[in-house]
Amino acid sequence: MNHWLIMPILFPAVVAPLLALAVRKDILLARVFSVGSTVCLLLLGLLLMGMASDGTTRTYSLGNWPSPYGIVLVLDRLTAIMLVLTAVLGLCVLLYSINGCDRRGEHFHPLFQFQLMGLNGAFLTGDLFNLFVFFEILLIASYGLMVHGGGPARMRAGIQYVVINLVGSSIFLLALGLIYGVTGTLNMADLAEKVPQIPKGDEALLYTGAVMLLVVFGLKSAIVPFQFWLPGTYANAAGPVAALFSIMTKVGAYSIIRVFTLMFGESAGTGAWFATSWLMPAAAITMVLGMIGVVAARSLGQQASFAALGSMGTLLIAIAGFTAATESAALYYLIHSTLGIAAMFLLIDAVVIRRPGFGDELSAAPKIKHVGLIGSMFFLAVIAVIGMPPLSGFVGKLLILDAVKPLYGWGVIWALILSTSLLGLIGFASSGSILFWKSGECDGELTPTGPTPIALPMVAIGSLLVLLIFLTGAAGPVTAYLDATAAQLFEPHQYIEAVLRPVGAVTK
Amino acid sequence: MEWIVASSVAAMTAAGIYLVLSLRTFTVVIGLTLLTYATNLFLFTTGRLAVNKPDIITSLDAPHSDPIPQALVLTAIVISFAMTAIILVMAVRGYFESGGDHVDLLGPEEVVARERQ
Question: What is the complex's ipTM, to 2 decimals?
Fold first, then answer.
């Protein structure tokens, strides 16, 4: 058994209580521990990615209980990518938050580590109920992070965010109950074997459960009609928190890929790929709605939130295709969109702390401090997010357009993706020129009220942008790896064998 | 027994949804609690309804009840308890920040003004 698999969960689980109990008074020590732990998570992620890249699926049975009876952690290429992405994003956001944002409220660093633990757990687990538990861990940490810093607007958005997610948790449990009731198992690999053998009379119950799962994952990934929470939450959270949350919607997307390729894929018989017909229209509407929001938004935070919504729509269109080519394109776009949206929210925070009295509203104001550097970074981030050449958003959208071509109705998808990109371009061009261009017409320069450190925050944002440029430059090797990942997703028997009948296990 | 369990799950879900949609945070919290009760009861029944059957299996031939849903319910109860505590803390904090328990955290004057409209 490979004990490295549990480390991405165990490590933050040990560090977080330590941060909360032992070093809660000493912010310097807390920062050192928090950054150190996240760096270790990144190294662990890279190690696991190296292991997974040979194409075998590795498993770890907790407590050495044989699956399907015990809980099992599974490492394949998809999981490894998500682990590395989480650690990279976490590290950049953490470096940025050291500008003083982590001192605006209590317990930022422990909550951050718990959040990473929940994310890693959700990506690693091979059991549906365990997925629910890790969802709750990452959510409970996100509730704390969401209201970090306080204030009535943030509190209001926080309460609404918690309520909608609690309702989502109830639906998740009901779905699990339905699925367990007819199959007698919640182990994903075991379910993948049991779903095709389901008796005719139980099919309705099983697929009701499956659609409810889709609803829950759709709620997490903010797909229409469950998107209402996203703009309020992201626009009202502190900048670094919103940046970290850019991976939260991707957890929903990851779960959709995992569950619906493994359990309701090719082998599922009558219900094979039933998710496509639900997901595709909803994703298209999400994308259109998000990009219209980008044009209509009256503040920068709202605009970035709607851009996040639009990019989720684009991502889910690719996922809903459910072919090896579309999943590969979707994963490329997923990595790009997580990093791009995060860079954008960090930049907005950098603008907001330099615009006292104006905040993130889109109105002409005097020049901000460091306007040249922040302005050009904003320009790069926007180019990436809306998918203009030459950055990775363009490559991602191109891959998606190419991958959906064999699908039914590809013309509509092409028209929607291309026209919404134009909408995004218009929206961000207008906001960028108001923020940075027109500030030249006003006299004087705004003096920020608090300290505005420049080195570390800009390193954090800069590394996100450099990663986007790397993703563009190394698109060839990256897509080769993602093609292999998608191919692995479409050979579920390998996953099932690795979990249920591991080589070298003692069988009675 | 099926009828009683099914109708109580239905009644609690309906009441829960109705209360979650209300305007005051306190009733929303009550609604969420009812919703989790309904969910837990539903989860419990997925192991089939049976009376007086042991859940520790000594022999596969003897009648027994399914122990897994009971373990699942236990986990779900603990989690929903913690979540209710969190939402309560946030609701109280919101009450002190705005002076009202409206879900949009309006102050008392704003609530009165909105109700007049």
Answer: 0.91
